[in-house]
């Protein structure tokens, strides 16, 4: 189940008709039993935010929250 930040970003993009523009890159590092996840949120191929955490969903949520903040800031400045 998506976390609050991820769900909020998805809902925002869906309302704008841009959900298809979102893509994710994922990477992990460290030992297999305790990896650190890095999730990169991209909108139309442009990196908007990167989140890093011990759990993949938390890293994605961090990146999603920052991406949403940036998108809303861009919209306010138009």
Automatic annotation (TrEMBL):
DRBM domain boundaries: 4-73
Xref: Pfam families: dsrm
Matches recorded under InterPro entries: dsRBD_dom
Name the UniProt record assigns to this protein: DRBM domain-containing protein
UniProtKB keywords: RNA-binding
């Amino acid at each position: 189940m998506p976390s609050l930040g991820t769900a909020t970003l998805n809902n925002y993009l869906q309302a704008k008709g841009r959900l298809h523009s979102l893509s994710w890159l994922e990477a992990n590092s460290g030992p297999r039993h305790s990896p650190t996840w890095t999730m990169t949120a991209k909108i139309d191929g442009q990196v908007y935010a990167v989140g890093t955490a011990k759990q993949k969903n938390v890293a994605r949520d961090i990146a999603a929250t920052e991406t949403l903040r940036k998108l809303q800031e861009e919209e306010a400045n138009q």
